[in-house]
Amino acid sequence: MGIDVLANARSLGPSLGERSGEIEAHGRLPEDVVSDLQEASLFRLFVPERLGGPELDVETAITSIAEISRHDGASGWCVMIAGTTSLLAGFLPEPHAQLIYGTKDSCTGGFAAPVGKATITDGGLSVTGTWEWGSGSEHCTWIGGGTRIYNTDGEPVKRDDGLFAPFVFMDPSDIEFLDNWKVTGLAGSGSTDYRTESAFVPEGRWVQITDAAPILDGPQWRFPFYGVLAAGVAAVSIGLLDGAVSRFKEVALSKKPQGSSRILAERASGQTVLSTAEATARSSRAFLLETLGSAWETALQGDSLTIENRRSIRLAACDAAQRCCDALVSLGREAGGTAVYLREPLQRFVRDGQVASTHAMVAQRIYELTGRLSLDLETDTTLL
Fold first, then answer.
1. Which of 18, 44, 80, 304 is deepest in the core (most CB within 10 A)?
2. Domains of the chain listed by start with CATH number
3. What pLDDT digit, counting tens, does each position of 162-192 carry?
4. How far apart are CA 119 and CA 126, in angstroms?
5. pTM for the complete prediction?
6. Backbone angles phi, psi at 35, to 5 degrees
């Protein structure tokens, strides 16, 4: 009997919603919340079954992320980061995959852009760097960081085997966390900067994401990492909007706007904003799952995803994050003064959605990328 991660998400979600304010104030996930998410296998979405993981299909993984996010954005964000990073288990050499993902509490994360500096040393790499956006890294069992290889003269180089920009996995004992995550939204995700100095990474404990070939055979590992990451960010946005729609209904049925003889639920503007937000959440989810489903069918046949598969995933993810953000703002505006208080859950959904929409994988500039590809213009598809 496999691990029913989606059922676990549905069971755990309400308790996270009740603690959402506490999680935000804490600035990171409390230890018992981390333990609950670990026990539910929500940090290990794509870990292979042979390593004790759930080895989810992409649609179930994305739906699980959205389910947690509809209750608490910070928890959903941390599930998204760890869950999407776990896709790399299928690209790691067996000994490293076993070491990093072979325990029930395994949790990985990090910032993939190659901003760290790696130099070749006996038996591996020596890594120095500072990375931003270390979401959930303080509870990770292994912490990743994108790097670029340099020679002793400080020039970027490529090894004979083609290695030039590996995403390396580092022991938490080699990492210093910088307490600078003071933000307007997703505050409870603990996405602080982190750094290391001359950390040793043994040979092969890395994945060069831009051109890595999977070691395991399976449809999950025929998906591009950046595409899955983008879909995960979109899932958080969709989940946030789901949660905000539910909360707005509660507010609308009890709030009587100042100077009005009717409750908000009886006003045309409230009804319109609610319906528009619901339609946005449902249509965004449908578009995203449609593109993922089509790509899954391609992957099931043993084929690599086409450029069109990849383009469609990124378009759906970007569109979901941007439209959900706009819908969240509209709900907050329509709720009026009620939504300005920090005690009101609706304002947290709005702020979390605004931060989620700025992620590089779903930012507005992705429309340009997908538009160029649609027009058959020459386009750099390295991060597609």
1. 80
2. 5-101 (1.10.540.10), 109-207 (2.40.110.10), 223-374 (1.20.140.10)
3. 999 999 999 999 999 999 999 999 999 999 9
4. 5
5. 0.97
6. -60, -40
